[in-house]
């Protein structure tokens, strides 16, 4: 705590400058953030934290920022893995605005199925407040336990059951954003051809245009039934083809995930006891599936009848491509469901064994999935060759669409002797692979957002005029670069 | 033809200044356009028309416009009903760029189900070229016979089977827009969290940002089966509730339309012979449905199995709310399918009897549908009271969503003694009702776009900062107001 410098912010009744608040808001959940927190070397801290309870208080804080020329970082659940909320070195003071006290269901229109939430409401409170009334939003990113509805919208998040519920883009219906130019009231209309969609312009602005304070989302009746299952395909091509056919034939599953052979082997080793593994392995070999086998994880969510007909259609496709399920399928699906938000905690476990772990993700067209995955895996595997270090890599497709899929790659490498040296290894892995993503016909992020860590790669993806669109908007709403500078665009205050 | 003034455009090998070309591109298909064409009083004409065949030629035309300081109007099928392509009085010369020669399927990636089209490809050519390969886009607005894929994107169009295929927003995957600042290459990615979506920023810009030249759209395998059917509900509340439950329970129909009681009566009178009408009326009365009955039109599109289970789920809902179908249902559904693009021609038929007809449309939340429909109908019915004229009005919900529905109102009024006086009557009807839409929690257009006719109402819907977003973008891409000025925004060159 001794290293937290004195706050440079002027006094204000809404601003807290206690060290603990500043330390707690200094970092997100990226690998460098996590290293920083372990090592105690946070680099930079916000000069203070505010916890507004109303839109009016957010406006007041923004006006105070203009008056005293300081920087504002909007903060949801602090789960960013791309540096969205990390203060950078700056001659100006930095205020983090933590939206966590705006966490209530403010209105639920049951006829139109629209819920209005305070933007700082985290996943569990979103669902608890809705489910008490018989409704669900159905948005379950891996960060769900902490991340907030406003954060999901600001960074264009996607949940694990997006096959049924859609991405946050399909859920966000409108609401209120406080900007330096005033309040942006985003109209909530089912569908419109009245010019560009303002919802879509604000989603993904990552705090650069303003701060979401109240948001309307499209909700649904809580489903009658939800089930997760697992089955195994003979090889990657079969698994990928099943996923593509499910999406393109619109089989109404709520999720489908395809692990490649390496991930399938790793999961079998990590997720089960030796006895269980041998039992499963023996059964699958008996059914003709060797080490090339790939695991499919899938779920149905809806009425019992809808789930039944969805599974019936799926089974036809699985059979055609040689899928093997059986009695184990339901048990393993249940295991997945129990562990679905646990992956981020794996970092602690492997660290104790001297192993670092992180993930990279993108999405691309079906026709490019193999090439993109192969390039990402090969790049990671070879990235530390010069250091004589091996990297263990595996991948799954986490979200599927008619056009393509998201690619989610996990990699493990040995920790170096110091935090600094471990961070250097990570930087090599990250930058080499991001370069490969940017140069492919893929996006620099399917679900994590841009933040500071991906801003460098945006121009390749969006093109010169695409970047001009974003820069023009940000500049018009925040000409002095007061809101989250360095995020989304590579600029500094 | 004598009234077409001399062209003010400089000579260019791509520009045609023949009177016939200029007359043919002077007007769209709105009621005033149609009056102008009948009366021969076109008011203004483009000074010339170009028919580019490549993106390079579009760039050349835009550069020529800058060089010689003239205005450019992008033109697709000329089916605008909101004044998108109508030249206004201007001291500058006006060039209409007709995209009709860029009408080819340039590429079809069957694995990723992405088709690339010249932006000027009209509906029938889109489908013919795709269906020859076993695919479909499935976008069928009423203007389908003439309107183009680029026009659909530029004006955020919606097709009749949007319940299955989605709006054009769900189909448009990326492509190329030629702007005054260069070529905007819009990346085609299945889904992304990399900042604001450039596709979404360009859709609905109605030619103000640039001209789409090549567009990628998400296509599907041609369906195994498609059926349209009709049934009758006891009253409006029952019909509306069925539609809401279908959307909110995600019953996979491809379309559902709910006619109110007035439209149901009118359709029965207009669409059938007296003998057929008496037969149907007698049967429905026997089944307990009186003059309050409402017609539901619906369709299924997909595999035979998917259609069967969709109809099974629908039937349960219909039964719960007192629906009556029977043997007539399939026959009447087939009649609807045959006449689905015919409505625009009705104008000619009624005109011969001294009756003018036009439509108005919006969309709003389920909780506001009744109020909005009632206000629109009452406003139209009373709008010509001062002139002692009655207006006949009826309505249907044309597109349904979980959140709400589109409201599509048709109105008939007597022609006055002169074109001018008839136009005055129309202006009263249009402006009074648009005011009621703008003041409701509804959009000024669900599917027709903004054009010149709705620009006045945009600020109420989008708000001051919402308008600022649009103005900032347009100004940045076209600071001299060269591209379609007066459209989308109320500005003049």
Automatic annotation (TrEMBL), chains A, B:
Domain of life: Eukaryota
One BP term from GO: lipid biosynthetic process
GO MF entries: alkylglycerone-phosphate synthase activity; FAD binding
InterPro entries per record: Alkyl-DHAP_Synthase, FAD-bd_oxidored_4_C, FAD-bd_PCMH, FAD-bd_PCMH-like_sf, FAD-bd_PCMH_sub1, FAD-bd_PCMH_sub2, FAD-linked_Oxase-like_C, Oxid_FAD_bind_N
Residues bound to FAD: 74-80
Residue positions of the active site: 408 (proton donor/acceptor)
EC number: 2.5.1.26
Subunit structure: Homodimer.
Protein name stated in the entry: Alkylglycerone-phosphate synthase
């Amino acid at each position: 705590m001794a290293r937290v410098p004195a706050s440079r912010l002027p006094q204000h009744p809404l601003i807290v400058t206690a060290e603990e608040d500043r330390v707690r808001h200094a970092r997100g959940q990226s690998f460098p953030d996590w290293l920083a927190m372990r090592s105690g070397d946070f680099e930079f801290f916000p000069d203070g934290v505010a916890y507004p309870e109303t839109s009016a208080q957010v406006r007041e804080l923004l006006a105070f920022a203009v008056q005293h020329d300081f920087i504002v970082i909007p903060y949801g659940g602090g789960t960013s893995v791309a540096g969205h909320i990390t203060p950078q070195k700056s001659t100006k003071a930095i205020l983090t605005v933590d939206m966590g006290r705006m966490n209530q269901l403010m209105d639920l229109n049951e006829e139109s199925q629209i819920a209005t939430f305070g933007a700082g409401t985290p996943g569990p409170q979103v669902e608890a407040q809705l489910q008490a009334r018989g409704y669900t939003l159905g948005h379950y990113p891996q960060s769900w336990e902490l991340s907030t509805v406003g954060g999901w919208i600001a960074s264009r998040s996607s949940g694990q059951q997006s096959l049924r519920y859609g991405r946050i883009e399909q859920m966000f219906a409108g609401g209120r954003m406080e900007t330096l130019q005033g309040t942006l009231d985003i109209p909530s209309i089912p569908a419109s051809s009245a010019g560009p969609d303002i919802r879509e312009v604000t989603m993904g602005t990552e705090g650069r245009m303003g701060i979401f304070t109240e948001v309307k989302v499209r909700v649904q009746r809580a489903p009658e039934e939800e089930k997760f299952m697992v089955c195994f395909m003979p090889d990657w091509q079969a698994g990928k083809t099943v996923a593509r056919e499910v999406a393109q034939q619109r089989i109404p599953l709520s999720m489908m995930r395809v692990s490649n052979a390496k991930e399938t082997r790793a999961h079998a080793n990590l997720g089960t006891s030796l006895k269980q593994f041998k039992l499963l392995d023996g059964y699958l070999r008996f059914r003709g599936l060797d080490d090339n086998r790939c695991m499919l994880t899938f779920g149905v969510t809806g009425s019992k009848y809808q789930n039944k007909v969805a599974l019936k259609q799926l089974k036809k496709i699985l059979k055609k491509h040689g899928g093997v399920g059986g009695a184990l399928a339901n048990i393993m699906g249940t295991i997945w469901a129990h562990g679905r938000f646990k992956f981020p905690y794996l970092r602690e476990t492997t660290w104790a064994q001297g192993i670092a772990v992180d993930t990279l993700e993108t999405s691309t067209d079906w026709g490019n999935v193999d090439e993109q995955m192969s390039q990402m895996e090969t790049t990671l595997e070879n990235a530390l060759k010069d250091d004589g270090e091996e990297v263990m890599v595996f991948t799954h497709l986490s979200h599927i669409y008619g056009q393509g899929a998201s690619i989610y790659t996990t990699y493990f490498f040995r920790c170096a002797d110091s935090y600094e040296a471990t961070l250097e290894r990570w930087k090599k892995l990250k930058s080499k692979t991001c370069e490969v993503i940017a140069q492919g016909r893929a996006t620099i992020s399917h679900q994590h957002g841009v933040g500071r860590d991906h801003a460098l790669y945006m121009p390749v993806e969006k093109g010169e005029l695409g970047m001009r669109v974003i820069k023009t908007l940000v500049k018009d709403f925040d000409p002095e670069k007061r809101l989250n500078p360095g995020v989304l665009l590579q600029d500094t205050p």
